[in-house]
Design goal:
By secondary structure, the protein is an alpha/beta fold. Helix content is 14%, strand content 27%. The chain has one domain. The chain is built from four helices and 13 strands. Strands 1, 2, 3, 4, 5, 6, 10, 11, 12 and 13 form a ten-stranded mixed sheet that branches. A three-stranded antiparallel sheet has the order 8-7-9, with no helix packed on it.
C-alpha cells in the first residue's frame, strides 16, 4: 500500500517555499492509495506520535504524551511525561483524518461546534511570531505575521487553508482567523491536518496545537498547552519522522489502540 505521507510532506514543503515569496499557502492532501479506515497499520510510517487522551467525549481537557521509535512499525518509547492540555469547550468529535470518518458512536466534528477533532491526524508545518524564539526546528516553519490568515468561512474556496492575504487577488471569505493574535495564543504552534483530503465545507477548520490562555480554559476546537510545553514539542517534532496525532476519548483509545498500533497508556 502506497503511503500518503511523502506526498503530503512534499506538498507542504513546496507551500512553505512559496510562502517565502508571498504566495498563497494551501495545505491539502493529494491523491494516492488510501489507508484502511480504522484498520491496521494506521501509524505504520510514523516514528513520532502525540497521543492525547480525554476521559469522555465531553471532556474539555486531557493529557498529551509523546512517543518515538527507531523504525516504522517498531515499538513506541515514551518521551518525557504527560502534559495537561485544554481541548474544545464542548469536548471532542470525530474529525476527518487518516482514520477516515466517524468510526462509531459519538459526536462528529462540525464548523463552530466547539469540539476538538478526534481520530488520527498527520501534522503540518509549525508557526511562530518570531522564528528565533522557536529556535532550531525540524518542521517547516511559517512566520505568523499580520499578513497570515486561516480561512474558516465555509463559503470560501480557501476554506480551511492558510493564506497570505496580500497575495490573494480576489478574497472571497467572510471569516478568517488572524494568525498574529493579540493574545499570543498562536505565538508558537503547529497545524493539525484535519479535514484536508478532501476539504469538506463545514467539516471544521483551522485546527492547531498552540499556547493556552490559561490552564483549564477550553478552546474553540484546538489543543492548547503551556508555552514551555509547546516550545519543547515544536523543537521535538521532525517532519522526516512523519509525526502523527492520535486524539481520542479513553474508551475509543482502548478500542483502536491495537489496530492503530498505539502504545499502551500506563497510570
Amino acid at each position: 500500500m502506497t503511503s500518503r505521507r511523502p506526498c503530503i510532506l512534499a506538498r507542504t514543503l513546496a507551500r512553505v517555499l512559496l510562502a517565502l515569496f508571498a504566495s498563497a499557502l494551501v495545505f491539502t492532501g493529494c491523491a494516492s492509495s488510501p489507508r484502511p479506515f480504522g484498520g491496521a497499520d494506521m501509524t505504520g510510517p510514523s516514528r513520532q506520535l502525540l497521543l492525547v487522551s480525554a476521559e469522555s467525549w465531553d471532556a474539555s481537557s486531557g493529557e498529551l504524551r509523546r512517543f518515538e521509535r527507531a523504525e516504522a512499525g517498531g515499538q513506541w518509547t515514551a518521551v518525557g511525561g504527560p502534559v495537561f492540555v485544554n481541548l474544545g469547550r464542548n469536548g471532542l468529535g470525530w474529525g476527518r483524518g487518516l482514520h477516515g470518518l466517524a468510526l462509531g458512536s459519538g459526536p462528529v466534528k462540525r464548523e463552530g461546534d466547539g469540539r476538538a477533532p478526534a481520530g488520527l491526524f498527520e501534522l503540518g508545518p509549525g508557526f511562530a511570531y518570531d522564528p528565533d524564539e522557536a529556535g532550531p526546528v525540524r518542521l517547516p516553519l511559517l512566520k505568523a505575521d499580520e499578513n497570515l490568515l486561516c480561512v474558516d468561512g465555509t463559503e470560501s474556496r480557501y476554506y480551511n487553508q492558510i493564506v497570505q492575504k496580500n497575495s490573494v487577488a480576489a478574497p472571497d471569505w467572510q471569516s478568517a482567523e488572524d494568525m498574529r493574535r493579540a493574545d499570543g495564543q498562536y505565538r508558537l504552534g503547529a497545524l493539525v491536518l484535519h479535514n484536508m483530503d478532501p476539504v469538506v465545507p463545514g467539516g471544521g477548520s483551522c485546527i492547531f496545537l498552540h499556547i493556552w490562555r490559561d490552564r483549564g480554559m477550553a478552546t474553540s476546537g484546538c489543543t492548547s498547552m503551556a508555552p514551555e510545553d509547546m516550545l519543547e514539542l515544536l523543537r521535538w517534532l521532525d517532519a522526516e519522522r512523519a509525526p502523527v496525532l492520535a486524539q481520542l476519548p479513553r474508551l475509543e483509545l482502548e478500542r483502536y489502540a491495537a489496530s492503530w498500533r498505539l502504545p499502551e497508556l500506563r497510570p
